[in-house]
Write a structure and sequence with these properties.
The chain is α+β, with helices and mostly antiparallel strands and 265 residues long. The chain is built from 4 helices and 15 strands. The protein starts with 9 loop residues before the first strand and ends in a 7-residue tail after the last strand.
């Protein structure tokens, strides 16, 4: 990726975990990432890299004052959507029935961020780039290739995101993808949306990252050897072969070997 992401496009992901070093080791071994615990003045935040380019962040779960949360929040990956005006986007969020979970904050000169929840309960980040645009490599082995919202109310979610960011939604034209909806920016698919009813009862609405891998089966086996778990074993579908996995601390993510000649980030 060269240059800024268009508003509405997923541009970054990060993971909040109880044991940051264990997560760095797990994902480093699984995807070939490089990363170490960051400086204290940055809260220890780790920017993981692949081929020298940023691909994801990993941070230790902590309260704003640096203390350990009790109870510990669930381990989750957060997707960040690009915006060119965080303040106006946040106003649109509340106007459209969403809620601000973490208010706007400056991240040094890198940019400004916030975390919101949509009206269906899914949490998602917003990123207004400063000197940092987001992921520097996508669509390669070990890098982000897709971001997907699973929600209990697709029409409400579609209306919300279209109201707060310059995105449109459309039914997927992939074969055997009935009910799957794509988010589009300037006519290009940048993410997807599926119905929560397809997952086990009790799973909340959420955004999930997909990582491109050269072999889904090999990565699935490696994740299990490293203490991870398989939420949906490797299977073939319209866009390729994929699996849904969880790291040893419970963070869920998907891996896919895309069969289409060109897949969106």
């Amino acid at each position: 990726m060269n240059g800024p992401y268009k508003p509405g496009t997923p541009c970054w992901i990060d993971l909040m975990v109880p044991d940051q070093q264990a997560a760095l080791d797990f994902y480093g071994d699984l995807f070939g990432w490089q990363g170490e615990i960051g400086p204290a003045e940055q809260g220890g935040y780790s920017v993981c890299t692949l081929k020298g380019k940023p691909v994801a962040g990993i941070m230790k779960a902590m309260n704003p004052d640096g203390t350990t949360p009790d109870p510990m929040p669930p381990t989750v990956w957060t997707t960040y959507l690009a915006t060119d005006s965080l303040d106006s986007t946040l106003k649109a969020v509340t106007d459209a029935g969403g809620a601000v979970m973490m208010p706007a904050m400056d991240v040094m000169d890198l940019g400004r961020m916030a975390v919101i929840t949509d009206p269906t309960g899914a949490a998602v980040g917003l990123w207004q780039a400063g000197t940092f645009d987001g992921a520097g490599i996508v669509n390669e082995h070990g890098a982000l290739i897709w971001n997907e919202l699973t929600t209990g109310d697709i029409p409400a979610a579609a209306a919300f995101y279209s109201a707060v960011l310059p995105v449109t939604t459309a039914a997927s034209q992939m074969p055997d993808a009935e009910g799957y909806v794509e988010f589009k920016v300037a006519g290009r698919a940048v993410g997807g949306m599926m119905d929560l009813s397809k997952l086990p009862p009790g799973v909340p609405a959420h955004w999930m990252p997909y990582f491109h891998v050269d072999s889904v089966d090999d990565v699935q086996a490696a994740a299990v050897r490293a203490g991870g778990s398989v939420l949906a074993p490797a299977f073939d579908m319209a866009a390729g072969r994929m699996a849904v996995l969880a790291d040893p601390q419970g963070g869920g993510f998907s891996v896919i070997t895309a069969s289409a000649p060109e897949q969106p980030a």
